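Meet the record:
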Amino acid sequence: MIKPKVSIVILAWNNVTDIKKCIESIQAYYKEYHQLIIVDNGSTDGTAEYLSNLKDNWDYDYADLSIITNSDNIGYAAGNNRALASIKGAYTLWLNQDIVITQKSIELLTQCLDENPQYAMVAPQLRYPDGRIQASCRALPTVSHMLQSIRKGQWNDDFDYTKSQICEQPMASAIMIRSEIMQEIKGFDDHPDYWLFFNDVDLSKTLQVNNYTTYYVAESLMYHDHGGSTRKLLNIKKRLYWQKGFNRYFIKWHYPHGYKKYSFYIISGLIFSLLVVRDLVRK
């Protein structure tokens, strides 16, 4: 039996159109034998039926296919972690269901890891469906930086997306990581407050404190319908999930004890209020 070099994990939830496009792009543009793991996070829209039909008609000479079904939506981090025990490849590509890959995009990521053992994780260039480059790489956040960005109405990072380079925190919509390292750190932090947001920030921070490096590969191009996976959530519900993740990240890594922790909660409340007002103004 051939052992796949790459395992691809896709978390699916209530968007059969996007998950179908994602899988079809992999079939069209990635011809190397690989492992595909799809975790259905309690979908109720026909996704389960689509995946069942996919499994029944799958060509197992092309790729190894595993489908894991959750009875409920257990969140991004916990949902993805369901795949950890099944991963066979040396590298794991974690994809959102609203990603469409392009020719050689996966091969360029694997080549980068092959040739650079100092890199633990790599990320492609992401573009919106209309071709615009998507801001997907950031410095790890600080409270002061986030306050400045909210005040200016935009994230204040200067990143050249035309140039391959080291980056601190890529968006986890599409990331490839050495599977051994992902197992070592026990996957994503699946604390309930990381149900949807900041789990990718936490992953990058975990790699950083363990002296691992992340690299952005500009030549590897994928399309991302940003927000496609969360569009069905109400704005206020999304904001609450974001705030919980935000609090979890900063309490875990920066303000775990004492007066600094309580001071942070005051600032966090201010940030939440500012963001809710901004959401209402933008409606």
